[in-house]
Amino acid sequence: MKKLTVKTQLGIGILLLGAANVAFSAGNLADIASGIKTQASALATALSVVSYLAGVGFAMAGILQFKAHKENPQQVPLSKPVVMILVAASLVFLPTVINVAGASLFGGTPSNAATGGGGSALVGS
To answer: What pLDDT, on a 0 to 100 scale, did the predictor assign at position 25?
Structure first.
């Protein structure tokens, strides 16, 4: 069996303490579920923000790689900027895809913010 490093043990300990704090601070199971739902919502928002920022960063890097390819095609293959632009597009649209998939799986309609308006044409209303 592989021995865990000190950093890994510390991380696991912090996670367990946080979980214990949530469990003991809540009065009943409904309060715990409500707290987890609130935290999941905050995590989804953070994921959306990070995804948009990373997508914009990859787009800028892809544009710079196109410029580098134009200046020196032997050193910079064309596949590198193309892949960066595809990753950028995937990251920018990731929150929308997750929102629509969640609405499809769990019912309801996607929120207006993630679909760019209404969005009722994507999911049967």
So the answer is: 58
